[in-house]
Design goal:
Elements: H1 3-15, H2 20-32, H3 34-53, H4 60-71, H5 82-154, E1 160-166, E2 174-180, E3 184-190, E4 199-207, E5 211-217, E6 225-229, E7 238-247, E8 258-262
Antiparallel strand pairs: 1-2, 1-8, 2-3, 3-6, 4-5, 4-7, 7-8
Bound molecules: zinc ion.
């Protein structure tokens, strides 16, 4: 085997695509030829690099089978002589180029996939940010609406004020109600003790006939509750207001302990 023939066969040798005889011939030559030995070492390094750059999920054997498939003669001959090696060399090169190209494309698409994943995560962050902003805007809008409603009540010509005092269960608690038959009720309380879960504070307007539920109070951690309620326009004149502890969700008629009680000043309608 001459140097030229050996060099042409080296890549097939590294790919394991030579017959046993051809392999022996190449090895014999390489053993005695420094130049071809260097070429073989360089080529092996390239092939090792290629193998390492393959994705983990692609078995080396499958790639090898594809390359061999693309380079094998059209079936009539199984044993390949050096002449065949030369004749098929261009085809093998094309196959190798394709293999390289697909590796590069694979690496590129891996990079693209990473970039897409990063972008998707950024998009999710942006969406979460927008959701948080929308929630904040909704809270502000509801606060603004409540303040506007409270202002409407507080400027009503038929406004009446009721001060509520703490009870044995809540000696420090204080409450104040501003009620307008035509516009509604503004209620504010402080120092309401925390309730166990499943319990709630409920505000009542006590009339001569019966207590009427105004609504539920949700005190903050400091025991402060501010709320604006719509009251029925045909509500009978209150004789008292009270806050009781009730099961979560409230009840139609008071059942629990009183925490705040107040009586309207004389002259309130
Ligand atoms: Zn040589």
């Amino acid at each position: 085997v001459t140097c030229d023939e050996a060099r042409e066969a080296l890549e097939l040798y590294v790919a394991g695509a030579l017959t046993a005889d051809e392999t022996r011939a190449v090895e014999l030559h390489v053993a005695s030829c420094r130049g071809c030995r260097d070429d073989l070492a360089a080529l092996s390094a390239v092939m090792v690099g290629l193998a390492r750059s393959l994705p983990q999920s692609v078995p080396g054997a499958a790639v090898r089978a594809r390359v061999l498939d693309a380079t094998s003669p059209r079936g009539e001959e199984t044993a390949r002589s050096p002449r065949h090696v030369r004749r098929d060399y261009t085809g093998w090169l094309a196959a190798a180029a394709l293999a390289l190209l697909s590796l590069w494309l694979g690496a590129d698409s891996l990079k693209l996939r990473r970039e897409v994943t990063a972008l998707q995560s950024e998009l999710a962050d942006a969406r979460a940010h927008v959701d948080a902003s929308n929630a904040q805007i909704a809270r502000l809008q509801s606060t603004a609406a409540r303040n506007a409603q409270a202002m409407t009540v507080l400027t009503a010509p038929d406004l009446a004020r009721v001060d509520l005092a703490g009870q044995p269960r809540s000696p420090d608690a204080r409450g104040r109600a501003f009620w307008s038959r035509s516009r509604g009720l503004v209620f504010s309380a402080s120092h309401l003790p925390p309730l166990s879960s499943g319990r709630t504070y409920q505000l009542w307007v006590v009339t001569a006939a019966a207590p009427v539920s105004v609504g539920l109070l949700e005190p903050d951690d400091a025991g402060r509750a501010d709320a604006v309620f719509i009251t029925p326009p045909d509500l009978a004149t209150p004789v008292a207001m009270a806050v009781t502890e009730e099961p979560a969700g409230g009840v139609p008629a008071p059942t629990g302990e009183k925490y705040l009680v107040g009586v309207p000043a004389a002259g309130a309608s």
